[in-house]
Here is the input.
Amino acid sequence: MIAKEYITKLGSISKKLKEFSDFLLLNGKAFKINHKEIKELLEEYRIVLKEKGCYPNTQVLTILSNGKYKYCEGYGVLKSGIPLEHAWNLLEGDVVDISWNDGIEYFGIEMPYEFVERKYFENGIKEGLTKPLIVSWFIEQKGEKLAEVFRWR
Here is the structure.
């Protein structure tokens, strides 16, 4: 699995990243792809996609669907074999990716609707829906002492 191998290598770069990659590997999981008709989904929730905007796109779908479409972050792998930080939605445990059409592998963490909703309102629509939430989730799960480690986020 390309994503898990990448996350493992990421942890070997520095001590700062080791705890994060260990957390992701321990708490994350691989997800399978759901080939739901994306166009219909976007029309149903009246979502206008942002180019290169996986975080705002998927956060908006989670909020507008009142959590029906779960929110995940982690690493997605493109057909080219390149793993990238990415966000996607889940429906009944399967990936629904409204931002990419060439993802082949997904490994990450599902975040609770309440957390995504809280961050949405804490950060405001403009700021909160443009950045990843996984580091905030990690810090909340592991404690505030790690906030300094991930200050670069």
User: Anything to note?
Assistant: The two ends are 26 Å apart (CA to CA). Strands lie at 29-33, 70-78, 83-91, 94-96, 103-111. Confidence is low (pLDDT under 50) at residues 149-153.
